[in-house]
Specification:
The chain is α/β, with parallel strands linked by helices. The chain has one domain (2-115, 165-209): Rossmann fold (3-Layer(aba) Sandwich), CATH 3.40.50.300. The protein has helices at 13-24, 31-41, 44-53, 61-74, 89-101, 116-125, 164-178, 180-187, 200-210; strands spanning 2-6, 27-30, 80-83, 108-113, 126-128, 135-137, 191-195. It has a five-stranded parallel β-sheet, sandwiched between helices. Strands 5-6 form a two-stranded antiparallel sheet. The longest helix is centred in the C-terminal third of the chain and has 15 residues, at 164-178. The chain is globular and about 50 Å long. The protein starts with a strand and ends with a helix. Bound molecules: BIS(adenosine)-5'-pentaphosphate (AP5) and zinc ion (ZN). The site of zinc ion has 8 residues, from loops. Its EC number is 2.7.4.3. It catalyses: AMP + ATP = 2 ADP. This is Adenylate kinase.
Length: 211
Amino acid sequence: MILVLLGPPGSGKGTQGALLKSELSFEHISTGDMLRAEVSKKSPLGLKAEEYMKQGLLVPDDLIIAMIKNILTEAPHKNYVFDGFPRNVNQAEAFETMLNTMRLQVDKVFYFDLEDDVIIKRLSGRRVCPKCGATYNIYYQKPKNDTLCDNDATPLIQRDDDKEEVIVNRLRVYKEQTFPLIEYYKYKNKLFVVSADGTQEEVFEKLKSML
Ligand code: AP5
Ligand code: ZN
């Protein structure tokens, strides 16, 4: 089964993707996490991607599509949840072509609907563990010790693109480039709207009931 999580930055795609992985054994493919790993390795892809990511812009489609193609070619028949991909109509069309050649298709697209003021609060409050990747929020999901990761006591950091100036850009890019995918998948009868404004557990229950 192939699922896509679609929604504005901070709407909970990463959080729900991680739950689909831990609770239902989906392969969680987050293009954002993959790119951040390349950036911290300072690989050629990471160095290129960093220029775009720090400004809140999309990384060029050809780099992203090649990454996804590698994953699917290696293991085409797993249950996947894609988080943060596709991100524009061009990526969605390339994804469809790629899946067609493997006799696969996107089964369901979950659109996480959330108001801008909540988005901004979630993004500005997000803190992440640079060691294990765990995500926290100073407003909604505090670690036990204010500034340290619950798993390994590493000091938590703020993502560079969660700074206020970059958040504004990310929201603009989302509205211009990603939002049109809602109509794209609605037209294909694959779109399921999820109100993302509950607790993590509430949103996950809603998701499961729609699977
Ligand atoms: P990416 O990492 O994909 O960022 P994003 O889409 O902006 O999404 P986020 O990770 O910010 O938010 P999320 O929806 O996953 O929310 P989360 O669960 O973390 O992309 C980063 C960059 O990489 C892009 O700007 C671009 O440059 C590049 N990129 C990535 N994919 C690309 C692609 N396909 N094409 C081109 N470029 C690409 O939650 C956010 C916060 O809220 C957390 O603190 C969390 O604890 C909290 N939270 C979550 N759920 C709840 C809840 N129910 N209640 C209260 N708090 C909650
Ligand atoms: Zn940690």
